[in-house]
Design brief:
heterodimer; A: 121 residues; mainly alpha; disordered C terminus; B: 246 residues; alpha/beta; Spore Coat Polysaccharide Biosynthesis Protein SpsA, Chain A; 9 helices; 7 strands; globular; disordered N terminus
């Protein structure tokens, strides 16, 4: 069944995204394209509800509602991973910022050009 | 100590030179007010550069460490021990004339003699990294449960990094300037110990282990990490290694 291929591929893609741990320009493009795609599909699904069931049958799912649920779960997974990675990046920046503050408070001269180069003894 | 107008404690220090001028001891601390003064005082007896990184303690650790003669760097918020170590290392490397950085736990479990011996070993053998190992020493009294857990951690570390080590989570280490400068510790919790070993392996640094004794006091046991945290560490490391490979 086509749906199995699609879902397994999506889950594998989620795992790869998690492991690579970087958000690239390509992943940004993919996210934007998917967002537009979901919006367009949503409009179509609202205007012509029967098409959802037709698409579901075509890929091997019984009901349109089930197809929507599967896609929702996969989307949620990608959104969660994306947020997790973004939080990680923000945490790294936050640590670096706090570290600079701490080092500057401890030794304001350390980053100056006229810093003392003689040992403190 | 003679009170002076300058607020910086280093200017008010006596001119006694304890030795090991090329070495800076980095002590990450978090709520260690009970022991930090004696640990710093002991260190200052043999090392003239001691920097305590206060990782957002809620007690008087920072004041006590400064009074005992350490430079104190205060994280404005709690960032984790790995981050504190990296901050301390960066502070140490900004000091003129520092060739070796020693990492030293704040809870008083390490022995000063071990730290000095490890720095001597690094100098004598030209090693970039010297790691403390409680399992090379004959008289270490490691509790049985802890020993089993640490042995498992060692097997994991050996198989994932290829380093031939006998102790994966010892806080006492000596890093030469070039090795210390390359260290980036990003993992949260206590995973940084293995993260350091992973970077030693990846950097291809020359390293050796040195037997050390650990004082398992009631204080250090209470402060030490829980055994089940090992699984969190494994999870962190697996993701870290996969990322390094990707």
């Amino acid at each position: 069944m086509i749906i199995k291929l699609i879902l397994v591929a999506a889950l594998a893609g989620a795992a790869v995204t998690l492991v690579r741990g970087r958000r690239t320009a390509l992943s940004l493009l993919v996210r934007r394209a998917l967002t537009l795609g979901v919006l367009a599909a949503g409009v179509v699904a609202v205007l012509f509800p029967a098409t959802v069931t037709e698409v579901a049958r075509a890929v091997g799912v019984g009901r349109g509602t089930d197809l929507v649920l599967y896609l929702l779960v996969v989307t949620f997974l990608f959104v969660s991973i994306s947020l997790y990675l973004r939080l990680g990046e923000m945490h790294d920046r936050y640590v670096e910022l706090a570290r600079r503050v701490a080092l500057h408070e401890a030794d304001p001269d350390a980053h100056e050009t006229n810093r003392r180069l003689t040992p403190r003894r | 100590m003679v009170p002076t107008a300058t607020p910086r404690p280093r200017d008010a220090e006596p001119v006694v030179v304890p030795g090991n001028h090329d070495t800076c001891v980095v002590v990450p601390m978090y709520d260690e007010a009970g022991v930090i003064a004696s640990v710093v005082a002991e260190l200052r007896g043999r090392f003239d550069r001691v920097v305590c990184v206060d990782d957002g303690s809620r007690d008087a650790s920072a004041t006590l460490a400064a009074a005992a003669g350490a430079d104190v760097v205060r994280h404005p918020v709690n960032l984790g021990q790995g981050a504190a170590l990296e901050t301390g290392i960066r502070y140490a490397l900004a000091q003129p004339g520092v060739d070796y950085v020693v990492t030293y736990d704040a809870d008083g479990q390490h022995s000063l003699a071990d730290a000095e011996a490890m720095v001597r070993l690094a100098r004598a053998e030209g090693l970039q990294v010297v790691l403390g190992s409680r399992f090379l020493a004959t008289l270490s009294d490691v509790p049985a449960g802890r020993r089993r857990l640490l042995r498992a951690a060692v097997r994991f570390t050996r198989s994932t990094t290829g380093l031939d080590v006998t102790d994966a989570h010892n806080g006492l280490r000596v890093l030469r300037r070039d090795a210390a400068a390359g260290l980036r510790l990003r993992l949260h919790g206590m995973s940084h110990a293995s993260e350091i070993l992973g970077q030693v392996a990846r950097g291809g640094y020359s390293y050796a282990e040195h037997p050390v004794t650990i004082r398992y006091t009631d204080y250090s046991r209470a402060k030490g990490q829980r055994g089940w945290n090992a699984l969190n560490i494994v999870f962190d490391l697996v993701v870290d290694r996969l990322r390094a490979a990707a």
